[in-house]
Each structure stands twice: as C-alpha cells, then as structure tokens.
Amino acid sequence: MKQEVFTEDAPKPIGPYSQAIRSGSLVFLSGIIPLDPATGEIVRGDIRRATEQVFKNASSILKAAGVSLEDVVKVTVFMKDLTFFNEMNDVYSKWFKKPYPARTTVQVAALPRDVDLEMDFIAETG
User: Which residue range is the domain that position 77 belongs to?
Assistant: First the structure.
C-alpha cells in the first residue's frame, strides 16, 4: 500500500509526482533539486551551496515521512558536470555517518530547471 508524503518545508512538485512515497517499510524521495522553498529561488553557481540545499530539502521530506538521513539506504546523484564531484562529495560526506548509504553518481546532459545537481533518496522505516 503506497502513501504520499508531503511537506510545505520542501519545494512543491513541479510535475505529476509526489515529493515522496511510503511503500511498506521504504520511503522513496523523488529527485530533489537545489530550490529554496522559502524564496522559490534555485541555488546556482556554487555546487557546495546547491548540495546543502538539496540535503535541507531531503531532510524536511524525510522528517515528514517519520524518518531521517540516518535511515537512508540509497542515494542517486545526478550532476551536469563531474568536474565538481569533489566539492559535492565533501558536502555530502558531512550529512551522513557510517555506514554510508549505497550511492550512484552520474553525469547527465541536462536536469529540470537547468540545475547543476539533483538527488533522489531511498530510506527504510525500520
């Protein structure tokens, strides 16, 4: 049985999808871009700040689902330019503790709203 997860503390979906879906013991977050939900502005030009914003948004959605970053088991990172991988990875490493989630990082040609970074998350509820 799937259940929608929604919070005003993260960007509203810009298409026909949910911020997250709880299904059984898993929570699947849709791709999260560096959009500040308070201002509606996209964080551009600084991959570190963009990564921080993605994690703030993800944390808000996870909280609404009753879980946290500690419960994340898988992350997929989409980047327009892997030249900035080390900067993204540096910020990423500050948000997780061991054992780290499994992760895939790929370079893509384009992302929604022309952002530099998008991530999706899967968490386990227990």
Answer: 2-124
